[in-house]
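Input.
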Amino acid sequence: MQKKINLKRKFLIFILAFFILSFFILRTNNPVKDRLNNCQNLKSSSEKLQCWEDLIDSKINSKDIEGAFEIVEQLYKDDPVFVSNCHDFVHLIGQKTYQLFSENQKFNLPNKTAYCGYGFYHAFMEALVNDGADLNKARQFCDWVDQKMHSKNADVKGACYHGIGHGTADNHDTKKWKDEADLVDNALDLCEQVALDQVLLNRCSSGVFNVLAIAYFSNRLKMDSKDPLWFCRKFQNDIYQKTCYEEMNTALFVLSNKDFLRAAKFIAEIKKDEFATSAMRSLASVFGVSAVQSEDFEKIISGCRQLQARLRLSCLRGFAAGFMEGGSPGTEYEKALKYCQINILTEQEKAACFEELLWLSSINYPKEKHQTICNLVDNEFRKYCQ
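Output.
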């Protein structure tokens, strides 16, 4: 009997030792971590960027899209050089993922495709359009993504349609762009063909006008510095006029030399309140993304308070949205939450800020995580959790 007990004890000790040894082997034999460390040890930014690209490439080539996004998540937390280039890296993942899709290869998409401004969808759809693929395939892909991830990110289908608009407009042969209309007209027609309702048409057209804004600040088209929003006013269609104003945020950011109040003057000239407030929220959001590494909230709030009364709350909301968009992947809400909680905000201003933050939380996160964030908010603002 004693012999059996001793054998059993030896067996349990062996099993325990095996697991402990396996744990330490796995910790010390992590090729991805080793390669990340090697990248971090490189001195020049260009060498780092190439090293990171090679590492992400290796993940995509093995159809490990989730692994590629995990590298993005880690690098965003660890290196400020990566933060400023994050959108480009998720572009890379989107482009390479389209290659797998076009070859009918199987792959899984993680609930991380929203990282760094949804650049994944921009590049995926650009690659699809440039490949001459039927736009029905774009719609099918967006439907598949929505079916797979809606419970974790309610905005994923809209982001995908934004990518369709971006892809249809972004013709890299700039000689074919005679003027603004030449850039957007055909792309908007394609949006009308692929979008099955007004909500999706809104998102698709926003992608088209996003390309126009990029064309302006990259000097592929000349922007009128005295009246940069003239083209938006030409549209009779309210959806197009509204999304055009909203997507000029990045162009105004560059035109103003990152001077928020200077950029805001152009928004103040928009006559229709609905368009002006949505454009102001959008403008503030891009400035919020650029300020995500800072915590000078008092300066931001002071700037919003200097605007026309009709634009002030939209401005405050926009900065909350920008902090969410530019925040560290997985914990985007933290900076926005700190901003909304600052004491110098009035009750009305706090309400607007928390309404924006909690709405974005509800569509960008799974229910459980959204509820956790709601629990961090004062009781009086939890009504915006729904």
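The radius of gyration is 24 Å.
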